[in-house]
Amino acid sequence: MSEARWYVVHTYSGYENKVKLDIEKTIENRNLRDQILEVVIPMESVEEEKGDSKKVVTRKLLPAYILIHMVMNDDTWYVVRNTRGVTGFVGPGSKPVPLSDEDVEKMMSMNAVQESPFKIGDSVIVTDGVWEDTVGVVQSVNDSRRIVTINVNMFGRETPFEIDFASVKKV
Q1: How many domains does the chain have?
Q2: Which of 24, 37, 60, 75 has its Cα between 20 and 30 A from that of 117?
Q3: Phi, psi of 49 (to 5 degrees)
């Protein structure tokens, strides 16, 4: 028996949950648990700000795609390919291409909430762009957009501006 690998399956947009449930039912009905091991909809958790409240929201990382951990053979290919809502496997022609272990690891780790490395009141220095080497104080943090608003002293006045996380570091 060959080794189980991860494959990407394209679905109609919005049908990801239905396809996942249908494949899982077929696995049970045809007793394929040892050949189709797992069906996953890649999700990511992000913190969104609405007004004064922050809320953790889960959204699809790859809309219209699902991941399947399976042993590729004629039976499993047929089951997945002929599930209602599936348009096909990702790969050239009708030949599915398995994902690399690194790609699977990256997608599975995306489920963690990405928190900001900055807090209000932190002193930061701008590392690139027009404001490079400018020191400022964090006034607000927007995790979903990955930006901070910092105040810098310009002409004797505190002036706020927004900058992305990658362009600043803590002092």
Answers
A1: 2
A2: 60
A3: -105, 125
User: Residue 22 above 90 pLDDT?
Assistant: yes
∠89-112-150 over CA atoms, to 5°? 120
In this prediction the pTM is 0.63
Q: How far is it, in rounded angstroms, from Cα 38 to Cα 44?
A: 18
Q: What is the mean pLDDT of residues 67-79?
A: 93
For the domain that residue 16 is a member of, what is the CATH number? Answer: 3.30.70.940
Domain hosting residue 131, numbered range: 123-170
Helix (H) or strand (E) holding 24: helix 16-30
Query: From CA 7, how far away is CA 71, in angstroms rounded?
Result: 10
Instruction: Say whether 75 sits in a helix, a strand or coil.
Output: helix
